[in-house]
Amino acid sequence: MSQSPVLLAGQWRAADASSIFHADNPATGEKLPAEFPVSTWADCDAALNAATEAAAVLRILPPEQIARFLTRYAERIEARKAELVEAAHAETALPKAPRLGEVELPRTTNQLRQAAAAALDGSWAMPVIDAKLNIRSMLAPLGPVLVFGPNNFPYAYNGVAGGDFAAAIAAGNPVIAKAHPCHPNTTRLLAEEAFAAVGETGLPAATVQMIYHIAPEDGLRLVADKRLGAVGFTGSRAAGLKLKAAADAVGKPIYLELSSLNPVMILPGALAERGEKVVEEFTGSCLMANGQFCTSPGLTILFAGDAAEKFIAGVKAKLESAAPTALLSSGVAKSLSASVKILSDAGAELVTGGSPLGGNRFANTLLRVSGDGFLAAAEKLQTEAFGNASLAVVVRDAAQAAEVLSHLEGNLTGGIYSDTTGKDDALYEKLSPLLRLRVGRLLNDKMPTGVAVTPAMNHGGPFPATGHPGFTAVGIPAAMRRFTMLQCFDNVRPHRLPAVLRDKN
Amino acid sequence: MSQSPVLLAGQWRAADASSIFHADNPATGEKLPAEFPVSTWADCDAALNAATEAAAVLRILPPEQIARFLTRYAERIEARKAELVEAAHAETALPKAPRLGEVELPRTTNQLRQAAAAALDGSWAMPVIDAKLNIRSMLAPLGPVLVFGPNNFPYAYNGVAGGDFAAAIAAGNPVIAKAHPCHPNTTRLLAEEAFAAVGETGLPAATVQMIYHIAPEDGLRLVADKRLGAVGFTGSRAAGLKLKAAADAVGKPIYLELSSLNPVMILPGALAERGEKVVEEFTGSCLMANGQFCTSPGLTILFAGDAAEKFIAGVKAKLESAAPTALLSSGVAKSLSASVKILSDAGAELVTGGSPLGGNRFANTLLRVSGDGFLAAAEKLQTEAFGNASLAVVVRDAAQAAEVLSHLEGNLTGGIYSDTTGKDDALYEKLSPLLRLRVGRLLNDKMPTGVAVTPAMNHGGPFPATGHPGFTAVGIPAAMRRFTMLQCFDNVRPHRLPAVLRDKN
Cα–Cα distance between B14 and A145 in angstroms, integer? Predict the structure, then answer.
């Protein structure tokens, strides 16, 4: 079988490849037939040159045209849904329904349509006009955006279709997508539809480019390249931090979504009032997509006592009665084993699970540790165990809960369950300010999985959940502002101003 | 004479000092009498602890109280104007009038009052409410902000009174100010008024803290400390990049204003139409404050020909007829000599000046280089010569002008002068898009010095002018957003929401 072509400079062409790779079917462990190239620097260089030219055209196109592209692309994805669902299922083992076909694919096209609406609306640019001084400013496209998609959302975070892609394009930037090597075929199908929509709507041909895989050193070189405007990355902390260092060294904006434990604190009143319901919600959230969400609750904080023991026993029973399915890849399975070992070695005790089951499956896992134990090894015990494993921290009292919260790293989300009649309010008032500063999204009485695509969403948070606490990856138009620069026009003659900055506005 | 105390944890107290230093009077070269301490890590640590406590109180204070503080502080600065002007004049050699008393001090109090108005107004927080999903978000205070002030604006950028200070406080964060060691006494006077205003308006006592000087390694440790929310730095590229690396490594937001050449391109029609006027504007801008503005025009691009030669000769004559005064410090004088040597060694030819004159003065300097010469050493020839020196690049034609522009680093500003009847319009259309991407503020027919304090201002720009092209250091409320985090509230019970996120809004 011949290698799949890459999408570069307005054409599907053979990669300049250093080697080839195959994706695996994680459910069967079998190598999938299609061959994909690992691109060399020559492909990266060609992408950067073509993107630079496309950027110059895109930044002066009418927003209507960009919106038409995003809408048309959404329609084309819907038209090819059956094939996309088959491809993603084969490459990720995620269920075809409801997950891939009924949840993630519609979310993806919804994001593209919200981005289209925001491009048309134009308020994302935050124009400010001082007519008296004749000084005006707005946010403007930053230039080519490189998007690295993660393994866990083959559509909604895909480099060539997901949230970063939609935000970057809607703000007027071309995208160079780096596929996740676990789902290259899904990415190829999406890129085909994106490129067809580019052609239909008359955008510059290199508005969308896509490569499958590159060597790590080329990734570092790419993010630091002068031709690039910004980078969006969703993935592992280790890879993300290396890219961040390379980008930071040359002052390149890089927006990262890295690991997150999404701590959930369950106050005593909530357990007393509705312990079984909370067990159900917690277990459901932990097992959603086998725990392979960036917002999966990896850490829960309980107050020592009978109710906490009952909660743990309840979760244990539920975890043991649910049958784990294959994880996203053999890499995820290995990494989960390694993380659970780090947690155990650092003092966490296994309540249930803890072992691989073969076939890229891992036993549903709960660990526990006392507040003292957590504080003695707080860094190690915040190792992300990406997958179906979670750690319960059982604290002695409110003071120790506060101490645990103040040792938390930055997270995307954090939640607090409390009694509905006010019995936990004093505890909430004491503890919630500490949690608030460590998370991007604070929840009440609700598990963190499920990221609504609304302008009010923050899918971001303090380091190391992301690289900057001021930005979000989900939520239009805020997510678009990541891919812009602030441009001021001082005494610029009226006919030379961008339309949105002219006096009539 | 005893050491001046530092302002830490709500009191003026003796520093934990490793050594002492004095400021110089740059006009006379004499050491000024007051002794100031170089603080050890113990002082930094105390400041961080006190700021953490103050932050928790400040973030829930009514905005009216923060506004009252900023207003009261402005009034107190005005009441102590005579003493502040004497102090700053002695430490910087900047003229008492108009510069210090009539321009910079009013600008500083204006900034504080604009910040007060923005704190009251509240729209800086950009609240977004999705009442249907009960998801809400806003920008919220980030935590203690460390502000490093520069040497060149003893009031308007001072760590304890300037734009970063005002923006950080207005957004609800305490400030730890690091004085610039060239004007410690001015900073002490300002800090006294700030602290008195803190007391009068009932803010937490550690809302404002100030230390004079620290060892470089303590600076790196400070910016990386977990207790700190963010950093504002205005100063040299070398120092700024070291702090940036330390902050980036731990994902700490750091906002830098570093070097900038502020290129001005003068198109042929403008010279033909009003060459003498442009000579006058350019020279005036170059010599303003002895060229010690971050927006001083350090690079001008001319098109080869008689008009360019006449422009250069005109500037030469004006520079030679103006008497240079003392630079801000002996350090600035030394650094200017060194930079001019780098430019000369890289192929620039001296048109006039180029030598120190004694008494911390430097001859008004113009250098020139051809477009070919510039392109052969583009990096070295973009060395900032902070002070009264500027480089003219004489390009062959439009193509070479485009090439020169595409080799420019990021700058705060860039300007284009063109004929008023449209003769330069084709050149403008070709060249301005290239300049636009490399600068934060694009000017027409106007020199870059003079940064109006208006919401439409962008005093920022692409790296290495700053660390991120999306933020501005001047212009309320945009400047405040640097010191915030995005906080989302998902399903949070109504009475627990910040007031601005409740349904009635």
Answer: 51
| Half-sphere CA count of A47, side-chain side, radius 13 A | 34
Tokens describing residue A35: 């061959």
Give the C-alpha distances (Å, rounded to integers) separating B8 from B5, B154, B206.
9, 21, 7
3-state helix/strand/coil string of A351-368: EECCCEEECCEECCEEEE
Which residues of B are less than 8 Å from A56 in CB distance? Answer: 433
* The token pair that represents A179 in the structure block: 């596929």
CB environment B410-429: b (16+ within 10 A), e (fewer):
bbbbbbbbbbeeeebbebbe
Q: Which of B143, B433, B454 sits opposite A135 (nearest CB)?
A: B454
Q: Nearest residue on chain A to B136, judged by CA atoms?
A: A456
For residues B250 and B232, what is the distance between their CA atoms, to the nearest angstrom?
16
| B98 preceded by a cis bond (ω within 30 of 0) | yes
Cβ–Cβ gap A410/B484 under 8 Å: no
Contact across the interface for A486 and B472, Cβ inside 8 Å: yes
CB nearest B485 (choices: A250, A469, A496): A469
Query: Cβ atoms within 10 A of the Cβ of B288, count?
Result: 18
Dist CA B102 CA B98 (whole Å):
5
H or E element in which residue B195 lies = helix B184-201
| Cα distance between residue A174 and residue A52, in whole Å | 8
d(CA B7, CA B14): 9
Rounded Cα–Cα distance for residues A473 and A163 (Å): 7
The reply to whether omega before B477 is within 30° of 0 (cis) is yes
Sign of the Cα pseudo-torsion (B218, B220, B222, B227, in order):
negative
Query: Contact at 8 Å (CB) between B115 and B166?
Result: yes
Residues of A labelled as active-site residues: 257, 294
Q: Is B333 helix (H, G, I), strand (E, B) or coil?
A: helix
Q: Cα dist. B322→B325, B363, B447 in Å?
A: 9, 9, 19
Radius of gyration, CA atoms only, chain B: 24
> Which one-letter DSSP state was computed for residue B103?
I
Residue of B nearest to A224 (CA): B463
> Chain B: nearest CA to A432, how far in angstroms?
10
How confident is the prediction along chain A (505 residues), in pLDDT tens digits per residue? 589 999 999 999 999 999 999 999 999 999 999 999 999 999 999 999 999 999 999 999 999 999 999 999 999 999 999 999 999 999 999 999 999 999 999 999 999 999 999 999 999 999 999 999 999 999 999 999 999 999 999 999 999 999 999 999 999 999 999 999 999 999 999 999 999 999 999 999 999 999 999 999 999 999 999 999 999 999 999 999 999 999 999 999 999 999 999 999 999 999 999 999 999 999 999 999 999 999 999 999 999 999 999 999 999 999 999 999 999 999 999 999 999 999 999 999 999 999 999 999 999 999 999 999 999 999 999 999 999 999 999 999 999 999 999 999 999 999 999 999 999 999 999 999 999 999 999 999 999 998 999 999 999 999 999 999 999 999 999 999 999 999 999 999 999 999 999 987 6
In angstroms, the Cα distances linking B73 to B122, B177, B197, B208 are 20, 15, 5, 11
Report the largest interatomic distance among the alpha carbons of chain B, rounded to a whole angstrom: 73
β partners of residue A138: A487
Token pair in block for residue A172: 């007027």
Cβ distance of A128 and B433 shorter than 8 Å: no
Structure token pair of residue B165: 């200070």
> Distance between CA atoms of A115 and B282, rounded to whole angstroms?
44
Report CA-CA distances (Å) from B422 to A353, B112, B263, B399, B447.
Answer: 76, 42, 22, 20, 20
Nearest to A271 by CA among A298, A318, A309: A309
| B91/chain A closest Cα distance in angstroms | 33
Q: Are B212 and B184 in contact (CB under 8 A)?
A: yes
